[in-house]
Amino acid sequence: METKKVALKNFTEEQLKEFMKTIGEKSFRGSQVFTWIYKGAKSFDDMNNIPKSLREKLEKVSYIGNIDIELKLESKVDGTKKYLFLLNDGNIIETVMMNYDSRVTVCVSNQVGCRMGCKFCASTIDGLLRNLEPWEILDQVIKIQEDTGKRVSNIVLMGSGEPLDNFENTKQFLKIINEKNGLNIGYRHITLSTCGIVPKIYELADLEIPINLALSLHSPYDEGRKEIMPVANAYSIKDILDACRYYIKKTNRRVTFEYSLIKGVNDSENEAASLAKLLKGMLCHVNLIPINAVEEREYEKPDKSFIYKFRDSLEKNNIPATVRISMGSDISGACGQLRRKYK
Ligand SMILES: C[S@@+](CC[C@H](N)C(=O)[O-])C[C@H]1O[C@@H](n2cnc3c(N)ncnc32)[C@H](O)[C@@H]1O
Ligand code: SF4
């Protein structure tokens, strides 16, 4: 029986050194290969300080792990770039690069599709096809750096998929993206967005790594959430807020609440007032995102006056809030939409 080859980009430097020992090699070879990977080596033949015999051995038991750019679109409005990547099994995923102020932020996908079923989201229409491996999440960032020649400073886990539903791979991704001799992206520059899988929020907090947590709330009422997010049937808002408070205590980081404003669904003054009451006294911030229309869904953005009234009502009650401008709106703004159109 043929044994499964190992993806070397899944490893931290230490793990790669350990791996070398398991195949009868000296551990420093792990550091050499690690350095080559982050220098952009695409094949073992590129690694010219590695003996040919070891390169042949590596070829037999492992592979580096590369995904390919299938399509790239650039927004004429704000320079945002959207990429479709082709995975080794033929699946396609979507990644976005945004460049504002001095920050270069990449929004990575975490799964092919999603099984959470939020009614406004294009990523979930065909359900979950599969989880991404750590290296497949990482390589979205590597390939965008190579393509643009820019150093990525910030990562948001806000593309397709639910990171806490692919938790083991997400944890490993967080380790490898933070590697000193790798991409070296600091935890404070990473934001993980979740629809609110409560037990995993506690687990994430217990890792005590200071990444930013974004919680997709979208309604101050359990009943309202249940209408648009099936996950709300499993976890109440009270449970979510308790978990967020625990996260803040453990990490000392401010939590962001994502609130996608949908016309006539969750954009009333009452909802703004209830939200303010709910979040009172919490170290938090609210990100208001006017919903991006998705062809298969009937939801619409509220009128501008409603959006700003909602924000002002939160601010009046001392809840910091911003309206997030939609980046790349001319190139299929809603997450997962470009992928769907391409398919
Ligand atoms: C695509 S999700 C991925 C991360 C995670 N699964 C979550 O739900 O937080 C990232 C954010 O995009 C929001 N979102 C999804 N579809 C949207 C749409 N059509 N318009 C605006 N925001 C949307 C989600 O609610 C969430 O806050
Ligand atoms: S919003 Fe997030 S959790 Fe909900 S379906 Fe989309 S990707 Fe999945």
In a nutshell, what does this entry contain?
This protein is 35% helix and 20% strand.
**Major β-sheet annotation:** 10 strands, mixed
Globally, the shape reads globular
The tally of domains stands at 2
Q: Classify the secondary structure makeup into a structural class.
A: alpha/beta
Whole-angstrom Rg: 21 Å
At CATH's second level, what is the architecture of the largest domain? Alpha-Beta Barrel
What is the CATH H-level superfamily of the largest domain?
A: Aldolase class I
- SSE string: EHHHEEEEEEEHEHEHEHHEHEHEH
The averaged pLDDT comes out at 94
CATH fold description of the largest domain: TIM Barrel
Assign the CATH class of the largest domain.
Alpha Beta
**Count of alpha and pi helical runs:** 11
Question: How would the blueprint of this fold be written?
Answer:
Layout: E1 6-7, H1 13-22, H2 28-39, H3 52-61, E2 62-63, E3 68-74, E4 81-86, E5 92-100, E6 103-107, E7 111-113, E8 128-131, H4 134-148, E9 154-157, H5 167-177, E10 190-194, H6 198-206, E11 212-216, H7 222-228, H8 237-251, E12 255-261, H9 269-279, E13 284-290, H10 304-316, E14 321-323, H11 337-342
Parallel strand pairs: 1-2, 6-9, 9-10, 10-11, 11-12, 12-13, 13-14
Antiparallel strand pairs: 3-4, 4-5, 5-6, 7-8
Helix pairs in contact: 1-2, 4-5, 6-8, 9-10
